[in-house]
Design a protein that fits this description.
275 residues; mainly alpha; MetI-like fold; 2 domains
Length: 275
Amino acid sequence: MTTVMTASDAQGKIRPSSKPRKKGLDRHARLISIAGFVFLIAFWEVSVRLFSVPNYILPPPSEVAVALYRGIASGLLIYHFGFTAFQTLTGFAIAAVVGVLIGTLVTQFKILDLVVYPWVVSIQTLPKVAIAPLIIVWAGYGIQSKIIIVMLSSLFPILVNTIVGMRSCDQGKLDLMRSLQATRWETFRKVQLPNALPFIFAGLNVSIIFAILGSIVGEFVGSRAGLGNQILEANVQFNVALIFAVLVILGLFGLTLSTIMRAIQKRVLFWHSAS
């Protein structure tokens, strides 16, 4: 005796989509993260006041919030944030263009791989804190020296990921393009570049954080403005609450840039499931 499965029975046996479950897990993860953050802030506030820790050692979160509000309301932190943001974004943009360009040329021309790449690696191994004073001396205390430091700090991840992405292209696709008598430009535009884009965006996501670090390092070494300059001044005045307020701004700045970069990545790499 055979059993006939109707369309309704077949539909009943179809597994439900995993998307609602994934959204539920993401929502729970966010709630856990927010709850953990609230618990940490509350524990910090209670502990500092319970043990009477001086403000010049570790201020409570409430004092940090007051310092943050006063700095923003007076326009002081907004003014200095403008300098840090401009030099960070400018240096990062230059690093993105230079990194992708050099990485592409290195993979297309063997001579550049042998000549240019070792120099780039050598420069990258130098600590930015060590060469920052030299850059300040050569380029001056203005914003141009900070842009150079930011560019050098964020260049290498973009360059390396571009090279890896270009070289990881499937050989079968390259052979197919050769069999179709495609030019080098057509092979690059239709095969190599789309294959390298996920790697390039991975490098950009890492480099955007390095760009902020490079900007602060440059301001520590020598600057007249910027959030790094405010950290130094607050340290001299033992205003630890202001230092934490600046760190909060830097953390939010980094989180915002990373979120924007991921949104751009999802928009550009719409075909890439892992994006």
